[in-house]
UniProtKB/TrEMBL annotation:
Cofactor section: heme
Highest taxon of source: Eukaryota
Membrane topology qualifier: Single-pass membrane protein
The name this protein goes by in its record: Cytochrome P450 oxidoreductase GliF
Length: 539
C-alpha cells in the first residue's frame, strides 16, 4: 500500500511540480492537473471505478431491502408534518377518524395510530408478533444506543427481583437520595436558583447509578457524565442523520454514532472490575440466595439478580455490562422527567406541600420511611398519578413494532416493521373518564380509592386502559415499581428538607415533544430552593 502511494501519488506530484514550475501556475490550476493525473492513473482509476460500482450495488440493495415508509405501503389516511413531532396532526386525525386507524408522519418516523377501542386486543399480542422492545430499539437507534436490547433475563430482573428487593433496600435508597440532593442541590438556607431540568437529571442520574452500578461507581463523576451524556450523543447523531437523504443514513450511522460507541466502551471499562468482584462473590457463596439479599449499607445486588437469571455461560462480563448500561441509560430520562413534572406541580401548590408533608410525617419511624413499597403514602400516590396523567413522559401507549404480519380487528394487515401506537393523551384527558380532565386535582385518585372495593385500584403503578403511561399486559414497563418508589422517596426528602418555588411564579408547563413520541422537559424553567432541614451548610 505504501509503495502504491509512493509511486502513484508522491512521485508524480514531485515530477509535475518540477516540470510545471516555470509556468507559474496557481495552486488551483496545479490541483486540477494533479486530480486528472491521479484519476486516470491505472491503480487509482480502478479504485474509483470499483467505488462507483459498489455504490451502485448499495443503492440497488437499499431500494429492495431498505426501510420502507409505512404511509407508502398501507391503504390508510395519512397526516404529515414538517415538524419533528406529530402532536398536532394526531389531533387532526382523531377528529376525522375517531374509530379507525390512521398514519401520522413526522420528519423521522411513521406511526399507525389506533383508537383506544383496541387496547385489550393489542395488549394481548405476544412479543414475538409485536414488541415494545422492538419499538424502542427502532425509535432510539438501538443498534448503537443499546435501547430496546433488553434480554428476557434483564426484563425479569427489573420486573420481579428489583421489585421484591425494594422494601429491604428502602433504607439504602433514602441514604442515596439524601446524598444526591446534597451533591446536586446543597444545603444552603439562602434561597438559590437551579435550572430545573439539570437538577432532576443530576438527581436521578446519580441515584439510578447507585442502584444498578453500585454506590462507589454511582457517585463517581466519570460514570455519571458518561451515562447521562449517552442520550445526548445519541440525540446529536439522530439530528445529523435527519439532515441526510434516507439512502445515505446507513452509511453515515457508524460515523455519527462513534461517540456513543466510545462512551459505551468507557462505561464497560469502569464496570468490568465491579462485575468481576460481584461474580466471584456470587459463585463462591455457600448459599446461592445469600448474595441476592439486600443488606443495610450495602449495594443493591443487581449483578447477582442477573447472574441468577442467566444460564451458565450466558452471563459474560460484556452481557452484564450491557444490561447495567441499558438499565441506567433508559431509566434516567423517564425518572428525571417524571420528577421534573412532579416537583413542578408541587412547587406552585403550597397547600399540596403542606398536606403531603403531614402525610410523610405520619408514616415516618424515627425520621425514616417504612421498609415497604410505600403504599401508605396514599395522597402522595394520587398526586404522582395525577402528575403522570396530565404530564406524561410519552404521547403514546402500547407502542409496538410488528415482527410478523399482523391484522387487528380494524384496519389492514400490517407488514413487518410497522410502528403501532395508541394515543395516551386522548385517554389521559378524556372527559368520559375524568371530570375536568385538563385540571390538576391532586386528590382525584385518592378519592376514588376511598370507595369500598377500590383500595387496590388507581395506584400510580397501575397499568391498564385508564393509566396508559406504563403500557399493559406482559409487556408493561418492568421498572415502574422501582420508578414510582424512587419518586416517592425523592418527594418525601424534598418535603421534609426544602422549600421550593418556581422562579417567576406559576406558569403553564411547556413540554418539548420529541420525534419518537416522548416529551422532553422545558429547559428554561428555574426552581428556587431553600434548605430547612438539619445540619445546613455554612452561609
Amino acid at each position: 500500500m505504501l509503495s502504491t502511494i509512493q509511486s502513484n501519488i508522491i512521485e508524480p506530484y514531485m515530477v509535475l511540480r518540477q516540470t510545471l514550475g516555470p509556468l507559474k501556475l496557481s495552486r488551483w490550476q496545479l490541483t486540477k492537473i494533479m486530480a486528472k493525473a491521479m484519476l486516470f492513473g491505472s491503480v487509482l482509476r480502478s479504485i474509483f471505478v470499483a467505488s462507483v460500482i459498489a455504490f451502485a450495488f448499495y443503492l440497488l440493495w437499499y431500494s429492495v431491502f431498505g426501510e420502507k415508509h409505512t404511509e407508502k405501503i398501507l391503504d390508510l389516511p395519512v397526516f404529515k408534518t414538517n415538524a419533528s413531532h406529530c402532536d398536532d396532526i394526531i389531533k387532526e386525525g382523531q377528529k376525522k377518524y375517531p374509530n379507525d386507524p390512521f398514519v401520522v408522519v413526522n420528519k423521522r418516523f411513521s406511526f399507525v395510530v389506533y383508537p383506544a377501542t383496541v387496547w385489550d386486543e393489542l395488549k394481548r399480542i405476544p412479543e414475538h408478533t409485536a414488541s415494545v422492545a422492538g419499538y424502542m430499539h427502532h425509535c432510539n437507534s438501538g443498534d448503537w444506543s443499546l435501547v430496546g436490547n433488553e434480554t428476557q433475563e434483564l426484563w425479569k430482573t427489573m420486573n420481579v427481583d428489583l421489585t421484591r428487593a425494594l422494601p429491604a433496600h428502602l433504607g439504602n435508597l433514602q441514604e442515596d437520595i439524601a446524598l444526591a440532593f446534597d451533591t446536586v442541590v446543597g444545603r444552603s438556607t439562602k434561597p438559590h436558583e437551579k435550572w430545573h431540568m439539570f437538577t432532576t437529571v443530576g438527581l436521578m442520574g446519580r441515584l439510578n447509578a447507585t442502584s444498578f452500578a453500585g454506590r462507589d461507581l454511582g457517585f463517581r463523576a466519570a460514570w455519571y457524565w458518561s451515562v447521562t451524556l449517552a442520550p445526548v450523543f445519541a440525540h446529536f447523531a439522530n439530528t445529523l442523520l435527519k439532515m441526510l437523504p434516507d439512502f445515505l443514513k446507513p452509511l453515515a450511522r457508524p460515523i455519527f454514532y462513534a461517540p456513543v460507541l466510545l462512551d459505551h466502551q468507557f462505561m464497560r471499562q469502569m464496570l468490568y472490575p465491579i462485575i468481576d468482584k460481584n461474580t466471584k462473590e456470587f459463585r463462591e457463596a455457600k448459599d446461592p440466595k445469600e448474595p441476592m439479599a439486600p443488606k443495610p449499607g450495602k449495594n443493591l445486588p443487581f449483578t447477582a439478580f442477573l447472574l441468577a437469571r442467566y444460564k451458565d455461560g450466558a452471563a459474560t462480563p460484556h452481557q452484564l455490562s450491557t444490561d447495567i448500561i441499558q438499565a441506567s441509560y433508559t431509566s434516567i430520562p423517564s425518572t428525571s422527567t417524571s420528577l421534573y413534572h412532579a416537583l413542578w406541580n408541587l412547587a406552585q401548590r403550597p397547600e399540596a406541600q403542606e398536606i403531603l408533608r403531614k402525610e410523610v410525617e405520619e408514616v415516618m419511624i424515627d425520621g425514616k420511611l417504612p421498609s415497604t413499597h410505600l403504599q401508605e403514602l396514599k395522597r402522595m400516590d394520587s398526586f404522582l398519578r395525577e402528575s403522570l396523567r396530565l404530564h406524561p413522559i410519552t404521547h403514546f401507549a402500547l407502542q409496538r413494532r410488528v415482527n410478523k404480519p399482523l391484522k387487528l380487528s380494524i384496519g389492514p394487515e400490517l407488514p413487518v416493521g410497522t410502528l403501532i401506537v395508541l394515543d395516551a393523551q386522548a385517554i389521559n384527558r378524556s372527559p368520559e373518564l375524568y371530570d375536568n380532565p385538563n385540571e390538576f386535582d391532586m386528590d382525584r385518585f385518592w378519592r376514588l380509592r376511598q370507595i369500598p372495593g377500590n383500595d387496590g385500584k388507581y395506584h400510580a403503578v397501575t397499568a391498564n386502559a385508564t393509566a396508559p403511561i406504563w403500557g399493559d399486559g406482559a409487556q408493561a414497563c418492568p421498572g415502574r415499581y422501582y420508578g414510582v418508589c424512587v419518586l416517592k422517596i425523592s418527594l418525601a426528602h424534598v418535603l421534609m428538607n426544602y422549600d421550593i418555588e418556581l422562579k417567576g411564579g406559576p406558569r403553564p408547563l411547556k413540554p418539548i415533544p420529541v420525534p419518537n413520541g416522548t416529551f422532553g422537559p422545558d429547559p428554561s424553567v428555574k426552581m428556587i430552593w431553600k434548605y430547612k432541614g438539619k445540619n445546613p451548610s455554612p452561609a
